[in-house]
Design goal:
mainly alpha, 2 domains, 229 residues, disordered C terminus
Length: 229
């Protein structure tokens, strides 16, 4: 999951947007007096919340920035800022320019539309109790649905992101085809699926054909990984 987010943030627009966001964050947080000014405009809300993984933190940083965008824009157009020493510094001018740049906020919003559903799944994975693999794949399908809905089903807008997700879930078309071929055997308890353990698990599996296929995806993929070791 973290690698999916990493791949997304490697895309040129998102990479540049995230680098700008980190630059703004670093500039403010490395100057205690400026940090206090920011806190007065954000009602003591911080711009970052650490997470278990690097790219979940990246998402949360962008999310906090976006949530405080109006307050931050007010700060960088306030008399308190314009009369400050930072407003005269090159880096201060660059930071203010980024915060007042409509295209920056548009790209932040776009990054959040892609990242938010994936981070939700990442939090499931990072939970104390690991959910069944079938539920993870169902959650990923729902995440993809949420992304598609955010763009009104216009595939050209999210096709590249879906390719990143699919590549991390199932690396090869060969494995995908194997999974579908095994589904019929699973449902009829044939082959390896007729052993007692497999039959017992049928009564506790995640319900529904779609989730059955999800479990098979996970199991087949793991089998392929270890078979090649």
């Amino acid at each position: 999951m973290d690698l999916m987010l990493e791949d997304i943030f490697k895309l040129p627009n998102f990479k540049k947007t995230f680098e700008r966001a980190i630059g703004v964050h670093s500039y403010i947080y490395n100057r205690p007096s400026l940090l206090n000014m920011m806190r007065s405009f954000t009602q003591l809300k911080e711009l970052v919340k650490p997470a278990k993984t690097r790219f979940a933190t990246a998402f949360l940083t962008l999310q906090r920035l976006y949530q405080q965008r109006n307050n931050l824009r007010k700060m960088f157009t306030s008399e308190e800022w314009t009369k400050s020493k930072w407003a005269k510094e090159p880096q201060g001018k660059k930071t203010a320019q980024i915060m007042l740049m409509p295209s920056f906020w548009n790209h932040v919003h776009l990054a959040l539309q892609f990242s938010c559903p994936l981070v939700h799944v990442l939090r499931m994975v990072d939970g104390e109790e690991k959910p069944p693999m079938g539920y993870i794949y169902e959650a990923m399908d729902r995440a993809k649905e949420a992304i598609a809905n955010a763009f009104d089903g216009k595939e050209e807008k999210y096709k590249e992101i879906f390719e990143i997700i699919d590549q991390r879930l199932i690396p090869t078309l060969e494995i995908q085809d194997k999974v579908c071929a095994e589904l019929a055997k699973y449902e009829k308890a044939e082959g390896l699926f007729q052993i007692p353990m497999a039959i017992r698990q049928r009564s506790t599996r995640v319900p529904g054909n779609h989730l059955q296929c999800s479990i098979l995806v996970a199991n087949t993929f793991c089998f392929e990984m270890f078979a090649n070791c």
